[in-house]
Amino acid sequence: MPPSAVHDCSFPSTPGKVKMERSNYFGRVASRWQSFGPGKIVFWCVALLALLVVAVFFYATSPGVHNSFEQSLSLREAKNDVVSWGGSVWEKHVRHSAHAKRENGLVVLVTGAAGFVGTHVSLALKKRGDGVIGLDNFNSYYDPFLKRARQGLLEKQGVFVVEGDINNIALLRKLFDVITFTHVMHLAAQAGVRYAMENPGSYVHSNIAGFVNLLEACKEASPQPAIVWASSSSVYGLNSKVPFSEIDRTDQPASLYAATKKAGEEIAHTYNHIYGLSITGLRFFTVYGPWGRPDMAYFFFTKAILQGKPVNIYQGPNQVDLARDFTYIDDIVKGCFGALDTATPSTGTGGKKRGPAQLRVYNLGNTSPVTVPTLVAILEKHLKVKAKRNVVRMPRNGDVPFTHANVTLARVELGYNPTTDLQTGLKKFVKWYQLYYGGGSSSSSSSSSSKRRLRP
Ligand SMILES: O=C(O)[C@H]1O[C@H](OP(=O)(O)OP(=O)(O)OC[C@H]2O[C@@H](n3ccc(=O)[nH]c3=O)[C@H](O)[C@@H]2O)[C@H](O)[C@@H](O)[C@@H]1O
Questions:
Q1: Where in the cell is it found (predicted)?
Q2: What's the whole-number mean pLDDT along residues 149-176?
């Protein structure tokens, strides 16, 4: 069939765009295109597209791809961490810090050591003569200068803080390789109830994936350490029966934070059951005090009051004041010691369970809830400044109306006995705050003021 005939019967009539008789070659190409009617072109386009989709699907779901992706991720992670861990000098620091000075002293890995509770627990362990190694990723959830200041304090007392993430299995293995830990005090977590709506992934990363990673490292260790870790009063969620006791239901969390802490308790059960890890969960009730967390109400209320800015006081349905069982840090440290000292060893070795191991959960609260308006009144008294109160309805952001701990179990089994009331505890906090930030209207997140170093 001559090209002109093909052109006549099936090629679109756009004569200005196709020059048929330019040369033999072009003529052949053109005639081949002409043999493809519009229907065929659409068919082949769709077929090619389908092929592409199938190829992409197989590529994305192939295990090899994930492995190499994960490998490159861990390589990147390892690369980042190589700067701060590994090598003979690093190992020397680690060994020195982990050396227990008292006879039969514990050798404890404290995760989240540059955090609020982590700093206090690490300092107290060191003071008692136990060996301590800190681990912290120094993330910027809140003022990293405050975390660095805590690190300065720890290093002054001989506690070395390794910079790294609990998700980094290579780093954890290295630590367990260099040191035989008797205990792990696991305090690294994504804290905060309301922030979970802004950044849910960070809760999964730290409180679930990170916890599992840490338990994997503990399970592989020989001998396995006993683990004490921070759960939360928030696991009681929307319960209305007070005071909260360990046997109460914990299946109605009000926030993703609470849900990840509850998940942690279930994960602990699994690792105890399969691998013989000795695990104790501590449900902390709104811990406060010097060197505290700037994301917590008592801390940022203090800042706002000193700056003459209003504080938002949340109120529950029917104008009911919210209340918390605020617990002073020194009482919490004593509770952590009680848990560490009564923990029996894990029973597994080399990843295998050799017998049943301890699995415990305790409330660590103060047992006397205080309303948020009363908290503000106490701060006003200690700061000698009147607060600008702005009473607003409690937003739907994961908060619960009240918390109240029953600590009978911890009293009996850990010798826990909270002794600091909110008046006394906040007085100590305010004293620290004013020394650290210089009082007045200084910002709790300003780097210059945060560089001050003080005793806790
Ligand atoms: O006990 C716990 O398990 C939890 O305690 C605190 O969470 P929360 O009790 O909510 O402590 P804050 O964020 O300091 O809030 C204290 C009270 O102040 C109220 N609040 C908070 C912020 C605000 O602007 N206004 C206000 O009235 C809250 O509703 C709450 O009743 C910690 O932030 C959590 O990490 C911890 O796990």
A1: Golgi apparatus, Golgi stack membrane
A2: 98
CA of 101 to the centre of ligand 1 (A): 38
Active site residues: 257
Give the global pTM.
0.82
Residue nearest to atom 5 of ligand 1 (CA): 286
pLDDT for the residue 37: 53
Containing 259, the helix (H) or strand (E) segment is helix 256-275
Q: What whole-number distance in Å separates Cα of residue 285 and Cα of residue 242?
A: 14
Q: Is the Cβ–Cβ distance between 239 and 293 less than 8 Å? A: no
Residue 299 has pLDDT above 80, yes or no: yes
Is residue 202 left, alpha or beta, with left meaning phi > 0 and alpha meaning psi from -120 to 50? alpha
Q: Is 36 left (phi over 0), alpha (psi -120 to 50) or beta?
A: beta
pLDDT surpassing 90 at residue 435: yes
Which spans in 62-135 are helix H?
Answer: 63-82, 88-98, 116-128
285 lines ligand 1 (CB under 6 A): yes
Does the beta carbon of 296 sit less than 6 angstroms from any atom of ligand 1?
A: yes
Quote the pLDDT of residue 350: 80
Q: Find the DSSP H helices in 292-421.
A: 297-306, 329-342, 372-383, 408-414
- Which of the pair, 31 or 169, is modelled with greater confidence? 169
For the chain, which domains are there?
A: 1-34 (no CATH), 41-83 (no CATH), 84-450 (3.40.50.720)
Determine the distance separating the centroid of ligand 1 and the alpha carbon of 93, expressed in angstroms: 37
Q: Which range is least confidently modeled, 27-36, 226-235, 277-286?
A: 27-36
Q: Give dist(CA 222, CA 191) in Å, integer.
A: 31
> Is the CB of 192 within 6 Å of ligand 1?
yes
Contact 426, 288 (CB under 8 A): yes
Amino acid letter, 40: K
Is-contact 261 231, C-beta < 8 A?
A: yes
- So what's the pLDDT on residue 397? 87
113 closest CA partner among 151, 155, 153? 151
The interface pTM score, or ipTM, of the predicted complex is: 0.99
List pLDDT tens digits, range 73-118. Answer: 333 444 444 457 999 999 999 999 999 999 999 999 999 999 999 9
Specify the residue for token string 């404290």: 110
Q: Is the CB of 196 under 6 A from ligand 1?
A: no
- Indicate which residue's Cα is closest to atom 4 of ligand 1: 286
Q: In the block, which residue shows the tokens 């560490």?
A: 340
Ligand 1 mean position, distance from CA 252 (Å)? 18
